[in-house]
Amino acid sequence: MNSASPQTHRTVALVGAxxxxxxxxxxxxxxxxxxxxxxGSVEQGNTVCDHEPEEIARHTSxxxxxxxxxxxxxxGTAYTVTLADTPGHPDFVGAVDAALSVADVAxxxxxxxxxxxxxxxxxxxxAAAAGVPHVVVVTQEDKARADFRRVLAELRAEFxxxxxxxxxxxxxxxxxxxxxxVLSEEAHVYxxxxxxxxxxxxxxxxxxxxxxxxxxxxxIVSHDDAQLEAYLEGDEPSASELGRTFAxxxxxxxxxxxxxxxxxxxxxxxxxxxxxxxxTPAATDRDGRILVGEGSGGSELKVAPNEEGDTLxxxxxxxxxxxxxxxxxxxVLSGTLRTGDKLRNATTGVDxxxxxxxxxxxxxxxxxxxxxxxxxxxxxxxxxxxxxxxLWSRASGTARPAATPPRPPVYAVALEPASQxxxxxxxxxxxxLTAEDPTLVVDRAGDQTVLRGLGDTHVAVxxxxxxxxxxxxxETRPAPVAYRETIAGKASVEGKLKKQSGGHGQFAVVQxxxxxxxxxxxxxxxxxxxxxxxxxxYITAVEKGARDxxxxxxxxxxxxxxxxxxxxxxxxxxxxxxxxxxRTAASIGVKAALAEAGTVLLxxxxxxxxxxxxxxxxxxxxxxxxxxxxxxxxxxxxxxxxRVVAHVPESELTRYVLDLRSITAGQAELxxxxxxxxxxxxxxxx
Length: 686
Known about the structure:
Helices cover 27% and strands 33% of the residues. By secondary structure, it is an alpha+beta fold. Keywords: Elongation factor, GTP-binding, Nucleotide-binding, Protein biosynthesis.
């Protein structure tokens, strides 16, 4: 195993639509690098990156998987590469965000058969939000109906003319065994073992390749004054000189190379590794970013990847392993991390010790003595460092990684433990699960535990992991709608408690006026007692009793909100009165007022934002109308799509994310945020 060098290290996030060949490409790269003896397949469930049982069963990536390899470039430079294979399913976009938060480059895979689809746009947008350079790889060029030229046209139409094909396939579908190198104007012809030899371009490819060569060359030299001057004088730069200039464009986001390969027959795979290493910035070429300070704000601080600086480590993803416990994937932003180091978690305040560093190759742990600034690895048993933590050698200060895009949950289920033992273990298991994946959210709805995520598959996989990893079995059912009640009118009542059972009794009388408040005002307690009818020491107990009654629920069985309780008078006893007596009397009085005046059922209403292509806006509006949605705005998004904002009752949103994906063929972006309560129609049911 070569010792990693940050100057030649690359962390490459493989992102793209589901089914676009990310995992297959990772497998081919690992095999071509000699890291694995043979390639597995997603269909057979034996790939390096899709190693979790849930992934094998579904034949798709569901989490973030790292795979380390060593690569030697054509000039003999030794590189270390960490592939971060990510899911294409929209439910697991949190894993994409985690990978991009530490990546040096985003390798966006696009199927030569399917072309640009909704998942391609999502991957592109995520990479752009993370601010990392892009490289596009057109995969599956060996498949039936593969069409590189069509896909290239789609890419440039969707993302801009700054996408440049550096390779052209010579032959497609089953005949794809060679590539035309646009910069060197040579043909790379592949043998069965995945290696290639160079030949002159075949006559049928010369014209197209040369035209592309001229276009790319003119774009490259326009970014370098010396090269441009030489080019205008008829002296064209060499392929290596063009490559160096083009690499600066890639790093600055001014150009995106488009490559082509087949992960199945190996054609072009080595060139993908070569060009990613040659054309993208090294781990030490980009500063990290953290937020320093308390609260939700904090000031942004750039962190230079200096091996001699303070040790600063970003824990970007944690995974529960049934054999070794928690495995934390991490990137060293500054300094050098060594086994045995003791660091403070600047995000949670917990002290952690590094028990043993390793690099990941799927489920395999490859021992690493140290990790220098810019490198990615892993460590086990950092129990106090959830995903999104920063470990620091400094003894004080609060910090966290720079913010990733918020991914609010849009789908929920209620969890019903299968046994008393499962019920007891559930809170701890859920805490560990959400520490791994911040896009999972747990809350309570009455006496029920609700698990929220980004879709039905996201939640289903979480439930499977609860059973497999943590030994907690649960049943799921639709999440309850959090209805509320409010008093329908004003009522003046007496709350009275009078008991005598030997010794001290219990006595308290309160006169209350209970009335509605404006929507959203919550609860108000007013003390209007005069003359000491209720001693001052019991006033707080009266307020607590009123709150007890409202929380217990009104006549329709739901917590009561937006209520004003006024204490106007009362009676006390010198011996038998107490805090508890007045608390109980107040609760009795409030319940009597709710029964007398009646209550109005309130339903939660959420703010829903949907961003879709313009031609799908009408279908979205029609569907929202059918869900009792009230559209508050329709506007043009910055990328030319349409954005629809509406208020929709929560009861109509149970499966909305799934229905929306069906309506829009997965092209919609959705956020759902709780907004307010409104009077429910008479047909509403809890």
